Amino acid sequence: MKLLEEGVPLAELSIERIARTAGVGKAAIYRRWSGKEELFVDVVRTAEPPDPVLPGTSMRDDLVVLLESLRQRGLVRRTSAILHNVHAQMKSSPKIWCAYHDAAIAPRRRVGIEVLRRGRDNGELRADVDLELVNDMLVGPMLVRTFMRPDADLPEGLSEQIVDTILEGLRPVSSPPVSSPTP
């Protein structure tokens, strides 16, 4: 973290340099992490807010908690020069991006899809929807505001607004749509 705070580019980080900065031998680093990529991902994950505990009361409530966690991550990323810099550098390293994706993004995505699956099974969501697509529809607006529009607001209540707007169109209907008579 100290090296990142000093602005050392990711490409210049090495296990040897990290060990020297930490005042330990390389073996001490390798006992805990298999390489620079795993260590880097662990440092980034430590700097982010922890993953939330879901209330489990309803699909909607769980989705709001998941999106709120994403909103909080966006706020931290915006206020943390280190995380902003690290995420930009991480995108230039496919190996580190893949390690971060596997360790952080994919597990969160699986949780979201499981929440949607449970909601579909409980009748809170139409049975005919593509859960992967719905997950993208829920997460997409928050990611756009965080990464593509850093000037856009991430206000309190945004998570609820996104979830409620999307679920309104995806809720089950009690009766089939009325078809218009054919002439």
Secondary-structure class: mainly alpha
Oligomer: single chain
Uncertain stretches? 175-183
Mean pLDDT metric: 86
Radius of gyration: 21 Å
Question: Can you walk through the features of this model?
Answer:
This protein is mostly helical and 183 residues long. The protein is 66% helix and 0% strand. The chain has 9 helices and no strands. The protein has helices at 2-5, 15-22, 26-32, 36-47, 59-79, 81-90, 94-121, 131-148, 158-170. Helix 5 crosses helix 6. It starts with a helix and ends in a 13-residue tail after the last helix. The model is unreliable at 175-183 (pLDDT under 50).
Short précis:
The protein has 183 residues and is an all-alpha fold.
Structural topology:
Layout: H1 2-5, H2 15-22, H3 26-32, H4 36-47, H5 59-79, H6 81-90, H7 94-121, H8 131-148, H9 158-170
